[in-house]
Amino acid sequence: MAKTKELTVEDKLRLIYDLQLIDSKIDEIKNTRGELPLEIQDMEDEIAGLHSRKDKILIKIAEQEEEIKKRQMAIEDAKKLMERYVEQQKNVSNNREYEALSKEIEYQELEIQFAEKKIREAGFEIEKLQKLLNGDSFEKDGKTIVKKGIDELIEEKDNNLSHKREELAALMKETEKQEEMLRNRAEKIRADIEPRLLRAYDRLRKNFNNGLAVVSIERGASGGSYFTIPVQQQLEIRLRNKIVIDEHSGRILVDGDLAREEKAVINEMLENI
Q: Are residues 49 and 146 in the same domain?
């Protein structure tokens, strides 16, 4: 069985820098989408919130409608009792019974008044809730103020969301093939990099906003920190026989020639997509 060729330090440097170039290109593609994905997520959350609010309003309207029905039934029951008491008054044998029945009639009248008050209150509440759903307009300082209802807001935001999704889909379609190829290439490279070096690379990527974990030396300075690299260390980097870390930023350093060679390889790959 053939023995797998052991990678040299230079091989490792080329692999890790290739991975950096590819990941940076993927980052660049993502950046072309700008804030669209976040905007879409925010809009989806906002629309979900409006739907939740609408559901709560509909529940409250249903509760008020049930309250009206209950009070209407109470009025009907009170009227029936009043009719019965009036009939009973015609057959009483003394004033005491008559007065007792009169008090019952008065009580039922109060019950009817109370129920009618509750019906009016429920009606006002339903009207207020309906305005939240359907919108409202009123005069203020000689101007007509129009407040949009939840249904109109949902429709408006749904339309905006649809446009944003179309915009994002168009952007993604332009770069979909390239991004897929880059991701596949990145996975193959990652499989060839030793785990310890790959963990260091991933950790560095997360530590920096620009995602640069591997940088080249240009004009004697690190592309990551821009601090001048000592001449002796520059020589070590050019020899490519050890992995050198920038003492200022912690990034992995490669020499400018290696960087240019690998950029040419990656650029040629991108041109052939």
A: yes
Are 225 and 249 in contact, with CB atoms under 8 Å apart?
Answer: yes
Q: Do 60 and 137 share a domain, yes or no? A: yes
Name 145's bridge partners.
Answer: 138
- The per-residue DSSP string of 191-211 comes to HHS-HHHHHHHHHHHHHSTT-
Domain that holds residue 146: 41-154
Output phi, psi for 67, to 5 deg. -65, -40
* Interacting residues of 25 by C-beta distance below 8 A, sequence separation 6+: 182, 266, 270
Distance between CA 223 and CA 213 in Å, rounded?
Answer: 10
26 plus 56 within the same structural domain: no
Q: How many residues make up the chain in this entry?
A: 273
The pairs formed by 37-40 with CB atoms below 8 angstroms and a separation of 24 or more are 37/168, 39/164, 40/161, 40/164, 40/165, 40/168
Count helices and strands (H / E) in the chain: 7, 6
pLDDT in tens, 241-266: 999 998 888 999 999 999 999 999 98
Mean pLDDT of the chain: 90
The answer, as to whether pTM is greater than 0.70, is no
Instruction: Give me the DSSP letters along 142-193.
Output: TEEEEE--HHHHHHHHHHHHHHHHHHHHHHHHHHHHHHHHHHHHHHHHHHHS
pLDDT in tens, 59-103: 999 999 999 999 999 999 999 999 999 999 998 889 999 999 999
